[in-house]
Design a protein that fits this description.
With 490 residues, the chain is an all-beta fold. The protein has one helix and 36 strands. Strands 10, 12, 13, 14 and 16 form a five-stranded antiparallel sheet that branches. Strands 19, 21, 22, 23 and 25 form a five-stranded antiparallel sheet that branches. Strands 2-7-4-5 form a four-stranded antiparallel sheet, with no helix packed on it.
Length: 490
């Protein structure tokens, strides 16, 4: 009989760290004296990795960076976001205190970095870029992301008037091999003779910017889903979109495919909302559409359901669905007994005529135990925080950090009724705030809760805005406790 090796706690921790690629763990406490197998414990991560895409190709771009690790720990640790040549841009020194930086023009680079010790759990960074005029004008905001191997971007396009790029940033010491597949209303968009290879090599500690339209020359499709995967290595991936007449913004990756999705915090004054969804499996999806507003949940008239064929992208124009009240789009299977996983995002336009502005909001995962968006402004009209409770009432704690240049933190507890969206305008802000600040949400009871932050910085009558989702910062990891029983294998 072949003997199997027992896994020690240290081996388990190392294996989990290798799988996530995001965290290293301390060895858990000793097993109970009675030798019985104990339940898993949660422990703080000891290392976090973030990547930030290059902000803009415009020479007049102005970018603000903010980074923070939430909490009040006072132990040892370090955090550093730096350029490819090693120049530090952001270096938080203490949990709970954000740091900021600025950059100008098209030369602002992509950033990569690592946080360790007490600065690792929940380490968050974000960048907001304002471009006043030109083809890429707009307010472009995006959170720096953990590197991964699989990303979905419903809502990109190869149509005339659109310039959509996938930014790929490799934080590691080895080459990453990345594949990009595009799916339209009729399925996979196939290469034509002369089309560039869809497999890209991203060198260590470097970034690649891939324009999507040349991947399918002579094929113009308005609503496309991009699937980004790695054959080797890992990358951070974000989609940057510019559209003639309505500006530019980032599209973060959608939450993982699921039968039910939440797209939280569509602005109250949205003049156009377009839902794009994709079903990656072998089955068609029939989705029931609902809008969760401040007073409850309703079904958009004339858009009660959306049929999404397997392997194809579907879309529907919901027009001004929010009608003056911030709301969240809820997607659920029309038949609860037949859930089919989908990914989704919405394209949002505010303003009218020549004063329109574009933004995107993907389906998001729940806030979970804690989530943070780093870059917010204390102006009463600049920041709106949207909270949506699904399934049951929920209570959350919202913490506004001090500003990067001064101020005192503020805290508020908020109860959100099930099936509603509560828009905090303004949300908590630090007293005497100077510079940018972070908003952190913690789930205290009930839930799940989904959330986003809308930042609006008008320019010449244009309601320039960007929406950033909150997602669980995964600052702790479940680690199986060891057993002294030699017959128990992990």
């Amino acid at each position: 009989m072949k003997q199997r090796a027992l896994l020690t706690p240290a081996v388990v921790a190392a294996a989990l760290a290798a799988v996530t690629g995001l965290a290293s763990l301390t060895t858990p406490a000793a097993a109970p004296a009675d030798g019985k197998h104990a339940a898993a414990s949660r422990m703080p991560v000891e290392q976090s990795v973030l990547v930030c895409p290059a902000p803009s190709s415009s020479d007049i771009a102005e970018t603000t960076y903010t980074s923070i690790t939430p909490g009040t720990a006072r132990g040892k640790g370090s955090a550093r976001l730096a350029t490819k040549d090693g120049k530090a841009v952001l270096e938080p020194k203490e949990p709970g205190k954000p740091v900021g930086a600025t950059a100008s023009g098209a030369e602002a680079p992509a950033l990569t970095g690592v946080a360790s010790g007490d600065l690792a759990p929940g380490w968050t960074a974000g960048q907001t870029t304002k471009v006043a005029v030109g083809q890429t004008r707009g307010l472009l905001g995006v959170g720096c992301t953990a590197p991964g191997t699989d990303f979905w971007f419903p809502g990109v396009s190869t149509a005339k008037g659109r310039q959509d790029y996938i930014h790929l940033t490799n934080p590691d010491d080895t080459v990453a091999e990345v594949d990009i597949k595009l799916y339209g209303p009729d399925g996979l968009l196939k290469d034509k003779p002369g089309a560039p290879d869809r497999v890209f090599q991203v060198d260590p500690h470097s970034t690649a910017r891939v324009l999507l339209s040349p991947l399918v020359p002579d094929t113009q499709v308005a609503d496309v889903t991009a699937h980004v995967t790695t054959g080797s290595g890992r990358v951070g991936a974000s989609a940057q979109i510019s559209e003639d007449g309505v500006g530019a913004d980032w599209l973060p990756a959608s939450a993982d495919p699921a039968g039910s999705l939440v797209l939280p915090g569509i602005p109250a004054d949205a003049t156009s909302v377009r839902l794009i969804a994709y079903a990656p499996g072998a089955d068609d999806a029939d989705l029931r559409l609902r809008l969760a507003g401040p007073g409850g949940t309703l079904t958009p008239a004339g858009n009660e359901q959306l049929h999404v064929k397997a392997g194809m992208t579907a879309s529907v124009d919901l027009k001004d669905v929010t009608r003056g009240e911030a709301g969240s789009l809820l997607l659920a299977p029309a038949d609860p007994k037949k859930p089919v996983p989908v990914v989704a995002a919405v394209r949002v336009v505010r303003g009218s005529g020549t004063k329109q502005e574009l933004g995107f909001l993907p389906a998001t995962s729940p806030v979970g135990a804690r989530a943070t968006v780093a870059d917010n402004r204390a102006d009463d009209k600049a920041t709106v925080l949207s909270l949506t409770a699904v399934g049951s009432d929920a209570k959350v704690r919202v913490t506004a950090s001090p500003g990067t240049e001064g101020g005192q933190a503020a805290v508020r507890e908020v109860t959100v009724k099930a099936g509603t969206t509560q828009a905090l305008s303004p949300p908590p802000a630090p007293t005497g705030a100077k510079g940018t600040y972070a908003l952190t949400i913690e789930t205290l009871s009930g839930g799940p809760v989904h959330a986003s932050r809308t930042l609006t910085l008008p320019q010449d009558g244009i309601p320039m805005f960007t929406v950033q989702p909150f997602s669980d910062d995964h600052s702790t990891v479940a680690v199986p406790k060891p057993s002294q029983d030699p017959g128990v294998l992990l």
